[in-house]
Amino acid sequence: MSGFGDTAHSYKSAGWNVVPIPHGTKRITITGYTGNDGIDASGADLQAWIEDGHDADNIGLRMPETVVGIDIDAYHGGLTTLAVLVQDLGALPSTPRTTARTDGSGISFYRIPVSTLLPSGLGKGIDIVRRGHRYAVAPPSLHPEGTPYRWLDSDGTEVDFPAVESLPMLPQSWVDHLDGLGTAPATITAPDAGPVRLTDGSADTEVARALAEAIEAAQGDSGSRHDAVLGAINRIVRQAERGHPGTEDALAQLRAAYVTAVGPDRSDAGAEFDRMVGGARVKVGQTPSAEHNTIEGRNAADELIEAVRSQGAVAADPVARPRRFVSLGELRSRPRPEPLIEGLLYQNTLAQLYGAPGTFKSFAALGMACAVASGQEQWESHPIHRNGRVLYVAAEGESGLVDRIDAWKQITIDSDASAQLEDNLRVMTDVVSLADTNAMAEVTAEAVDLESVLIILDTRARMTTGLDENSAKDQGVAIEQAEILRKKTGAVLLVIHHSSKAGTSARGSNSWDGAVNTNLMLERVGASMNLKIVCEKHKDAPDKCEHKFVMKKVAMPGDRDSLVMTNGRFDAESLFAEAEDSFDGKDALCAVLQENGTVDGFTRADSWKWYQADRNEAGKPEEIPAAVTTHNRWFLKLITEGKIVKRSTKRNTRDVFDVNP
Fold it and tell me: According to DSSP H, which parts of 397-540 are helical?
């Protein structure tokens, strides 16, 4: 299997609703086929998409009415949440799951009654994929990080995709819990029993942990807050029924947190919370726990461990018991970070660009952003390996932003690319501190929805308001939030920062210098408009290189003007400009590609390798440029002249080309 064109009809025949997703991404761009109001694509729709150029796309699965996906995020505590649910609800049957990760994360699929009411999640680290909300990315899709999606069985063995009718039914206990997020079931029912009495005293470990997670949920995303808090109430009331102390005080603290979070939107938040507690006490009272699940039967730690170990289907499933350690072979098989902008930024990494005031840091960041968002092949002779949505956080304000973007557009792109830029570049002018976990949760959720490939925080100082810039501890908090944003989105996260007074390092704590994969210094040459970006650090690529630029003034209609950063080596106004009679190897490169090109095509890296070998073999090493960017400039000229063409498919996320006969 290689893509949408090879598998879409097979998935459709197996009962799945299929929608194409652009290759190497997770965001559906075709409208009308997802959400509550979406329609299911017909076979004719699938064929039309294939013939319209979507044959190499990823596969998106919209849930049938009778299927639910339980999406477990191991990194964010999903396995712990699952263990607690298994303790209360019983084991989940073995079922196929789709995943691009090796840590136990993935979406497991079950059949459910059509009438089941589904919440948006089941607690920390577990989301629900349902017909009207979200969708699944399935094999043979490629994750934005470059890893392939796989179907795995309960033993972690790779399998073919299942037919919908072959999926196991979700156990009734889980269905009841999902249906309106009702109380956890038990093996005994007592419909005439009275409400559960809450317990006094100090909270034990289990109640304290439940309260901490509940307060975090109460302060979280407003769209899922009600479901999350209701689930937490049920959990704490169940703990009261089992004899755990401190539940009355825990619910009082949770009520205060909920009212504070919801109060600005709902005047009856307190009454709503009380109704949820009352309902939970009645329902838990009617479904008492079996004796061996009470605190008298065993302590809370033993109960949690045994609940997981005693469930055969879950214990054998890597979703419940992930492997934390991998073999060297598995480690070697993991893809290395691929470039976003060659020589500068690498996909799904944290990067920093710093410089003194007046070194045009924002202009550099905006140039990169515009090139990636508008679908360009390169940014100032640096090849771009992936295009898409770019999010720009202009924390220092929006002044001058529109003029800078318009000036870049005027000298760089045509109307079609301009329209693409207008759609793909999104700007936020609010100041959000990385220390504000609630605000950052909202930013992260929106960034995930937008399927961004590049996120720029301009500047680090404004995004760490309230934190001591020189404190490694304080900056560690900011770095953690930045990493959550990066991992959740899979985007490059580029942070713009100021240099120290000496100008030789980034200002403040060096925690960021150690945390980033890429550290770029922007340096101005004297008082001129000439600049250098120095790659001080690349974790996964050669560093210590320099890239030269010049700022050009661009006049625009309406008596407007602005500066634009351009490649200084190829601009006559630059101190770095190459001589007019400098060697142009474009034709020699074309001959090399004609000689070496195969039916499998070639990448830019192949081209550069072949050219160097050819010139050395010909005894002309002086015709090999010192920087790969010169080769890239020749390569792009050949594309512009139509002498080489890009294929619609990629090789390990890299563009593949052919010589045009």
Answer: 401-412, 415-424, 437-449, 460-463, 472-489, 511-515
Q: For 95-120, what is each residue's pLDDT tens digit? A: 999 999 888 889 999 999 886 777 77
Residue 493 has pLDDT above 90, yes or no: yes
**Same structural domain for residues 473 and 604?**
no
Structural domain span for residue 57: 4-178
CA distance 568 to 425: 25
Burial 422-460 (b: 16+ CB within 10 A, else e): eebbbbbeeebbbbbbeebbebbeebbebbbbbbbbbbb
Query: 548 and 562 in contact (C-beta within 8 Å)?
Result: no
Q: pTM for this one?
A: 0.50
493 φ, ψ (degrees, to nearest 5): -110, 105
Task: Give the C-alpha distances (Å, rounded to integers) separating 435 from 52, 349, 439.
Answer: 46, 20, 9
- Answer yes or no: do 272 and 385 share one domain: no
What distance in Å separates the CA atoms of residue 67 and residue 164, rounded to the nearest whole number?
A: 8
Domains in the chain, number: 4
Q: Crossing angle of helices 247-262/225-241, nearest 10°?
A: 170
Q: Is the N-terminal amide bond of 339 cis, ω within 30° of 0?
A: no
Residues 348-398: tens digit of each pLDDT: 999 999 999 889 999 999 999 999 999 998 898 888 988 999 999 998 888
> 219 with 140, same domain?
no
> Based on the domain organization, do 547 and 398 belong to the same domain?
yes
First CA to last CA distance, the chain: 29
Exposure string of 386-408, with b = 16+ CB inside 10 Å and e = fewer, is: bbbbbbbbbbbeeeebebbbbbb
Report CA dihedral (393, 395, 396, 400) to the nearest 10 degrees. 30
Residue 35 resides in a domain: yes
